[in-house]
Amino acid sequence: MLNWIFNKKERVHLDLSRIGIDIHSHLIPGIDDGVQTISEAVSMLREMQSLGYSHIVTTPHIMWDCYKNTPENILTGLQDIRKACEDEGLTIHIDAAAEYFIDEHFNELLNSSAPLLTLPGKRLLIELPYSTPLMNTPETLFSIIAKGYQPVLAHPERYTYFFSDPSIYKRLADGGCELQVNILSLSGYYGANIANMAKWLLKNDLITFLGTDAHRIQHVDMIQKLNSDNWILTYPFQNEKLINI
Predict the structure, then answer these.
(1) Which of 70, 144, 163, 201 is the one with CA 20 to 30 A from 91?
(2) Which segments of the chain have a pLDDT < 70?
């Protein structure tokens, strides 16, 4: 887990170069609610490189009611981005996985022989509904683990239905699910309640990964400003699990 240190004003330096990798973003043009052009993707990656990131694993949505993405179209888009970044002289390394929404289609994929797009270490980035909790979340996580994957829950601080009983987060972590908080959640971008929960999760050592969840250039601009303003928190040591993902 990440051991984060807050000072009294919670305005200390965030050194993203010590993390190096971002495991959650939407940088393949035109296939989900993320970037829509190659030029925007390249601009975002240029700025992320300047922030200190050396490795990006971009994660388009696979949400069958909205974004019917497949490994084929995701990896084709990845090659287009790699070529554009190479042409621009960027050195940041770019891979692709996916952010899987837990729905019927995901369960079909999990129980089929279809390849799933994973983060390093066979980590599977998953997303829950925002409005209504799934009745079988623990069973779904168990199924993911039983299939040989490590589940990583995207932005747990944004599932407000968990707020009435925050102990659910510890139960998820104890059950083998890693948790990834969004940087912008800490700034209040999604609202004060979500910011407070993100900080609570960090202070209680329940977060393994810090991600950008960048969908557009404005998100990266905001992270750049937070970083230059010494706004959020410090990363005082190298977490071996994170560095070696």
Answers:
(1) 70
(2) 1-15, 228-245
